[in-house]
Every structure is written in C-alpha cells, then in structure tokens.
Known about the structure:
88 residues, alpha+beta, Potassium Channel Kv1.1, Chain A, three-stranded mixed β-sheet, 6 helices, BTB domain-containing protein, BTB/POZ_dom
Amino acid sequence: MAGSKEHQSADMRIPEAYLSIVLGKLMEAPKSSGLKFVCEGQEIKVHKAIVCTQSSVIDKSANNKFFVEAHKGRIEMDNFDLPTPRHI
C-alpha cells in the first residue's frame, strides 16, 4: 500500500550531515558517556551505546557482570598507542 506507515517510514531518511552533527554533540557530552578508555595514562570518555555496537569485545568487557571493566566503567588499553582508542 502506498499510504501505509511502513512505506512512509522507508522513504524518510535522516540526512548523514545531520546525523554527523548529532553524534558529534553526543560525543562532546561527558555526563552521558558511561565508559572510559584508559591509554598512556589518559582517560577518554566514550559512549557505550556507540562503542559497544562497533566491537563485540568492548561490548562484553563493558556489559558482562563477570568482567572487572563492567564494574569499574573503564577499559585499560595500555597495549595500544593513544591515537588508537581515540579512533574507536
């Protein structure tokens, strides 16, 4: 059906430029980050909703109650150079 809600929602796309702006603002909001990467002594605040969808390893570390990282809200990344976790 041409007038159905399913058809209408499929045609409604959010422009990438707008999404980029929204995600940029989200990344700058430290109070909603929820997780920190620690590398070379520096803490990088990240958003779990974003990084956990990009990596199953980070997702398990941040959300599994049996992992220390999930309780601390921080993941140590000393095996990487500083630019690496900044680009995750």
